Amino acid sequence: xxxxxxxxxxxxxxxxxxxxxxxxxxxxxxxxxxxxxxxxxxxxxxxxxxxxxxxxxxxxxxxxxxxxxxxxxxxxxxxxxxxxxxxxxxxxxxxxxxxxxxxxxxxxxxxxxxxxxxxxxxxxxxxxxxxxxxxxxxxxxxxxxxxxxxxxxxxxxxxxxxxxxxxxxxxxxxxxxxxxxxxxxxxxxxxxxxxxxxxxxxxxxxxxxxxxxxxxxxxxxxxxxxxxxxxxxxxxxxxxxxxxxxxxxxxxxxxxxxxxxxxxxxxxxxxxxxxxxxxxxxxxxxxxxxxxxxxxxxxxxxxxxxxxxxxxxxxxxx
Length: 318
Fold this sequence. Notes:
By secondary structure, this protein is an alpha/beta fold. The chain has one domain: Alkaline Phosphatase, subunit A (3-Layer(aba) Sandwich), CATH 3.40.720. Helix content is 26%, strand content 14%. It is built from seven helices and eight strands; from the N terminus they run E-E-E-H-H-H-E-E-E-E-H-E-H-H-H. It has helices at 66-74, 87-96, 129-135, 204-217, 245-250, 259-273, 297-317; strands at 2-5, 9-16, 42-49, 139-145, 171-175, 187-189, 192-194, 228-233. Strands 1-2-3-8-4-5-6-7 form an eight-stranded mixed beta sheet, with helices on both faces. Strand 6 and strand 7 form a beta hairpin. The two termini are 15 Å apart. Residues 1-8 and 17-33 have low confidence and may be disordered.
């Protein structure tokens, strides 16, 4: 398991062989024979939005993520990384493997500026991972959030050059925006608007996982299954935080001690797991964040509830 993280994003990268074992193999050209099995690894990148290093349980966090923990236990947990502390820049850097400024995404695409490094338009010569893997014979899927393109391009009339299908992906299902309502999302499929089903129990994360499974299963129509690269970018846990009531109820009261106590508990868990050195001290609390003990009773109820719903959304996504 490999992690790439900024203050707004965290990615989980899996290389899955046909046996389900995590491993790495060099990418080679497509096999010349159409009958020989293609044994190159499938690759799934799960991009989690606004999830910090210390929030998942596998990294000492207080949010239960047993499935991520299971993968972490079978792979590697990385703790040293460079940050690109804004959403669009992080996504552009990850998907191209380049410095965000060199691919014209120095800030958020929605706040582009007419200056080199900030116009929000990834140059054609800076191909994405998907484009390179597609050229090597992979079938490529993008699901979820796609917001590293200027807002003027987010229309049903295009231009589609910087939509997923113009960036090396065969299929796309998700949304073009910093965030969306998880109950009633504004969706796109490939290059056209899509409608969420009229289901009172609809939730976007469920739909994304179902669509991902459908796309992966569609390879069965091929004589020889091509390996897949799936970029799975949930809106979770970016605002708005939406989760099933059962998960919200699961966390009821678990953050009543507040963020000061939570920080201490997480630090202790990280030291115990060997993720950070023994003797590490907490960074000073940000000046704009008051001591939990100084809050009113109503403020504590509000903020504890917000922490409960955030945790519920992340656990449900897991």
